[in-house]
Amino acid sequence: MLPRITLVLACIGVLSLWNVLRAQLPFKEWPAIEYENFKLPPDYQTDAEWVRARLRYPDIFGYPNDTRVRLPDGRPFPGYWTMDYPRSDRHLLQGIRRLTRIDTRSVEQVVSLDGTDDIYNFPAAYASEVGHWELPEKEAGQLREYLLRGGFLMVDDFHGSNARDNEQGINEWEQFTDGLSRVFPGRQVQDIPNSDAIFHTVSDLTDRFQVPGAQYFETGRTYEKGDTGKEPHWRAVRDDNGRIVVAIFHNMDLGDAWEVSDEPRYPEKWASLAYRIAVNYFIYDLSH
């Protein structure tokens, strides 16, 4: 009898492992707005305990369904979700390795709200340029499920709250909150108070300032999208227990700060703050 029980338990274990592996999609690189054939780290295939995901979402210009939209060089438009990808992701992950004891994979994982279980494998996700996202109800519903199961989403690199300040005629704040309202109907966006734990998990981020994007190299400005883009906002959506589940960086560009952190023209104080923010937020996610 004992060998039979042992065999049954072994089979259950193998099947469980197979289901886990089947649910986790392999690492894949995607076409991007800014980068093609970006060099992979030599250890990109090495497993790690923690992997940061990048959210692939549909946007207002029809990605991924409208293949007629093209970049100036003729390539199909790869979607606004790819802004700064993957250079920003990989610079950030190297920083997380150096600055924390998190066992971090050296490359990002692109995840989609595609109805599969894949997104649930990753505790933290990042979405760039969310002033352009267009979330249908089904995808918004899966994002809500992900967050309520304990997931954590950081949204970044969107600016202004007036369509007249935007060359595309988009009110990026309204576009973002329109999608967010499908994710969490009736749940309010809140400003994060200085006393919140998320600002004090590793570093005390009491002295915070606007983290500008690489457009600073051309404009000399720390802000984008007119007067309504001048003031940085540290905001969040919380779950019923008060835990931050959506961390919102409005009128900032942390993605660019990580991306060009090795660029001598980009001031160290901005890159340093961007990395300290990431460390605090990821540790908060893992400990709350």
Global outline: globular
Spatial strand arrangement across the major sheet? 2-1-3-4-7-6-5
Largest sheet: 7 strands, mixed
Q: Can you count the helices?
A: 7
CATH architecture: 3-Layer(aba) Sandwich
CATH class: Alpha Beta
Question: What name goes with the CATH superfamily?
Answer: Domain of unknown function DUF4159
Radius of gyration: 20 Å
| Number of structurally distinct domains | 1
Number of strands: 7
**End-to-end distance:** 45 Å
Protein model, in words:
The chain has 288 residues and is α/β, with parallel strands linked by helices. It has one domain: 3-Layer(aba) Sandwich (Rossmann fold), CATH 3.40.50. It is built from seven helices and seven strands, in the order αβαββαβαβαββαα. The protein has helices spanning 2-23, 87-99, 137-148, 172-183, 216-219, 254-259, 268-287, and strands at residues 52-56, 109-112, 124-128, 152-158, 190-191, 233-238, 244-250. Strands 2-1-3-4-7-6-5 form a seven-stranded mixed β-sheet. Helix 3 (137-148) crosses helix 4 (172-183).
